[in-house]
């Protein structure tokens, strides 16, 4: 038997393509080489300064569509540093006590790799402050190899001008938009305290305090060595505008007796926080706050992830620890000022924490008359009890007189509660009853078939979805109310106006379109019943919230590279090249390390709301709710419907759903691990800036929430912003959709033939753990 000789050949790795792929994984923006090289220049300047040399720092950047050159007068690099650090991914010369003491930003050791995402060749000319040697080196992307020498080194005559020049030639097809690149650089260098020039124009030397606008006319207070909360001490400057809005600056901060160099400047309702280290821009983040604080923070404890587009989880946790006490600190100061009357966030905080003693400056409507502060009413009540009315029946309001004026409580829920609690706790009052009553209830034997089905299904939804045991009745209610909840009854009794138009619609649906009946009853409970029983839902209490949290408490999902990740990735390929592991094993391990939660949205996965959940818009029109647009809301549930779609839209010819026309699905992985959270009532806030949209979903207990970050390939908006929005989550059998505000739709809705690529991460947030 003749056999052919066995032939073997070497498995080859295209290193240039490998570096391009890894650069794309680590750096979401193709302009990352600018950030990486300028950050290295900044670090080199810090290290030369720390070494005691006196010089005028400068970073000079030249950009054309085909070339990028970055020059600095920092400490430079020796030939050894070039070989062991710059040209060696995963190795950094900045992981030393001296470098850390200098305040360097980067410690990951990505080195040259960032450039080869879009560069075809790279040259480096550098003169070392330490060794006084000058070195020139060069490499082409197409010739990169891990087995052959591919980087040329050449010694040059020292000039006495220390520093480094990086020159990247841009590959064809990756040409640079000069204006976009300039603005990209400006965002992270604008507060550096020495010149950074881009094509001759200085883009730095701005005052970081100008990042957060002052109020033109405001009352001011300040203090030194003030305790903001448990273990957090520092200096503060606080401004309160005539509208009640707040701006606060913190500095000289210590946490648990450990000092932290840096400062933070915040303004109410600004939403996102831009972070800096030594005034060098890092990433946008957000904190959980009733005041929706946003602004800038500059601390040496901030550490970026390898891609520079986010902070490490530890950095965010420390910032949250510093800022978490601010809500209470600011509230205590505002409570002493008349401007608190106009600050809805102050009222919301007082309401959620039960700190009604702080409401003295809130002004309450008086009939006849205008308004008075609660503090003044407290004094008035010492002579004669106050008449207090919580309704809006004008015939009752007219009973007030100059001798006995009537206090009319506000209609907005949180403010009304603050007014009522202060009056009942600190004033003598006489309440004027405006309590609705059940005039009569119908016997169940008189129910129609549709009414019996409706009350039965209503009872199972209230019990099964919201864990409230209730007795459902049909009857006649005073004040023209559609529903009345009687909590004193055991079990809770929910009486529905039998003649209400909504009930008539639901009965017709049962009789003529039974398939839509289940969904309509669900929407009726969400819009009409839930606002009346939200405080009875067990997870609205601290104990209930903790019990629910235990059911979804799993390992946190953080999609970011730390230094160890990059080092390990380098080791995997070294082990493969050394023959220690096979190629499939290397690929599998590298893939696991580089894994991000990524979505790709194209026309094939986009659909319309009317096709996928056809009754949602119709039911929303037929069942108008009494919800608070900023309050916690249950999701829209369609748990019996599956869809392959990842993006849902509503055409301009149809009514918007709570103001939204675009809904994005969570990634499958996050839905599997965190999906239970969205079945609970929750509040929604959205912050956007740069290439990120940050969604913060707060559990209706106020105890915890979810942070859902979406990284896009292009800028989300030309202007950063954000704040609370109305919750409109849609939960289906295999998908959870979150709403996208109208001005952000273009970032997520693909054009014909276009693919939107999104990187996602999700973390639990602990909002209030007192």
Describe the structure.
The chain has 770 residues and is an alpha+beta fold. Helices cover 28% and strands 27% of the residues. The protein has 20 helices and 36 strands. The strands form six sheets. Strands 5-4-3-6-2-1-7-8 form an eight-stranded mixed beta sheet, covered by helices on one side. A hairpin with a 6-residue loop joins strand 3 and strand 4. The chain is globular and about 100 Å long. It starts with 14 loop residues before the first helix and ends with a strand. About 4% of the residues have low confidence.
Q: Quaternary state, please? A: single chain
What is the overall pLDDT average?
Answer: 83
Largest sheet: 8 strands, mixed
Helix content: 25-40%
Which structural class should the secondary elements be placed in?
A: alpha+beta
Strand order of the largest sheet: 5-4-3-6-2-1-7-8
Low-confidence stretches: 8-14, 554-569, 590-596
